[in-house]
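In response to the reviewer comment on reproducibility (Comment 2.3), we provide here a single inverse folding case reported in full, input and output, so that an independent group could reproduce the run without further information from us. The C-alpha cells appear first.
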C-alpha cells in the first residue's frame, strides 16, 4: 500500500490555529458556543480547537463527544460502538460546532445533527473538519475546513492524532 503525507504535525497545528481564528471571527458570542467532537478522532480535534479558541480569545468553549453509530442510516447488526455520547451542557439556543476528522459522504454528519436535535434545539449548527476527501452523497459541507483533497473512492484518508495514535499526520493511502 502506497501512502502520501497530506499534512504533518506542523501543518495540522497551523490548520487548527487558522480554523480557531475563523471560528472566533464568525461567532461574536463565544459564551454561546459549544463543541461536540464526533468520536473517535473528532473529540481530540474538538479539545484542541477549544484550547486554541481559549488561548486566542480568553473564552474556552465546553467540549463534549458524540457517538453517532446508533443514528447512522447504514448501521448494520454487529457494528462496534466507538464510544459513548457525553456532554454536560445544554444545547438549546446555543451554537453547536460539530468537529470531525474527515468529511466524506456526509452520512456521519447527518447522523450527528440528528443526535444533537434529540438533545435540544440549537440556535445553529456549524461544522469543522480537518479534511474533506470528496465523494459527497448528501448536501453537507464544512463551515471550517483544513484541507480538501479529491481522493478516488478506493483511497483511504487516514488521520493520525497524538492522543490516539501517538503522532499527528494525515495520509492518503492508495488501495488498489
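Designed residues, in position order:
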Amino acid at each position: 500500500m502506497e501512502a502520501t503525507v497530506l499534512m504533518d504535525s506542523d501543518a495540522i497545528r497551523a490548520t487548527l490555529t487558522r480554523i480557531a481564528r475563523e471560528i472566533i471571527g464568525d461567532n461574536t458570542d463565544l459564551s454561546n458556543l459549544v463543541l461536540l467532537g464526533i468520536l473517535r478522532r473528532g473529540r481530540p480535534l474538538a479539545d484542541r480547537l477549544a484550547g486554541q479558541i481559549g488561548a486566542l480569545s480568553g473564552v474556552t468553549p465546553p467540549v463534549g463527544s458524540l457517538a453517532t453509530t446508533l443514528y447512522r442510516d447504514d448501521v448494520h447488526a454487529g457494528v462496534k460502538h466507538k464510544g459513548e455520547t457525553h456532554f454536560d451542557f445544554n444545547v438549546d439556543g446555543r451554537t453547536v460546532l460539530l468537529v470531525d476528522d474527515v468529511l466524506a459522504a456526509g452520512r456521519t454528519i447527518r447522523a450527528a445533527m440528528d443526535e444533537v436535535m434529540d438533545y435540544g434545539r440549537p440556535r445553529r449548527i456549524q461544522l469543522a473538519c480537518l479534511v474533506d476527501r470528496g465523494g459527497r452523497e448528501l448536501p453537507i459541507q464544512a463551515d471550517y475546513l483544513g484541507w480538501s483533497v479529491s481522493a478516488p473512492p478506493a483511497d483511504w484518508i487516514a488521520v493520525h492524532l497524538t492522543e490516539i495514535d501517538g503522532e499527528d499526520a494525515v495520509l492518503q493511502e492508495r488501495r488498489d
